[in-house]
Design goal:
Number of helices: 2
Shape: elongated
Distance between the termini: 38 Å
Structural class: alpha+beta
Radius of gyration: 26 Å
Strand content: 25-35%
Largest sheet: 5 strands, mixed, barrel
CATH architecture of the largest domain: Beta Barrel
Strand order of the largest sheet: 1-2-3-5-4
Helix content: 25-40%
CATH class of the largest domain: Mainly Beta
Length: 135
């Protein structure tokens, strides 16, 4: 919560600086854009770039999880995600994964090269074991 308010404050300050202009008399001396306006625009652009970079970095470092019941089959273990209802074949660190249990697994989705092939989930670790799946 604190970082949300911090970034809102940064945005308010950046926009205030970007949109503020000094009060000058209009003399028609041939000057189209004032120095203050140029500085304000530069500060605004820099603020937008910094905020966009922070959001992208935060999103890319976010922990990805999948929750569902783990099943054991001919080709190894699989899990059906409760959110998107897709079936994922499990790979990676599956030593703590128990077939028949509902689990939250941390890792990442790997897109298969074949269109008809099931999706792969590369497991990094078990985030939570909820116990036996309920029908």
């Amino acid at each position: 919560m604190t970082s949300k308010y911090f970034w809102r404050g940064v945005l308010v300050v950046a926009l205030s600086v970007a949109l503020s202009t000094s009060a000058e008399t209009q003399t028609g001396g041939g000057k189209i854009v004032s120095t203050g306006t140029i500085v304000g625009v530069i500060v605004g652009v820099v603020a937008v770039v910094v905020i966009a970079a922070v959001v992208v970095i935060h999103k890319s470092s976010e922990k990805r999880t999948i929750t569902g019941c783990v099943n054991s089959g001919e080709n190894g273990m699989s899990v059906t995600d409760e959110k998107d209802k897709r079936l994922y074949a499990l790979s990676g660190t599956t030593t703590d994964v128990k077939p028949g249990d509902r689990m939250t697994l941390q890792g990442k989705k790997i897109k298969s090269q074949d269109a008809g092939k099931t999706l792969l989930w590369e497991t990094k670790q078990v985030a939570k074991d909820f116990g036996v799946c309920r029908p």
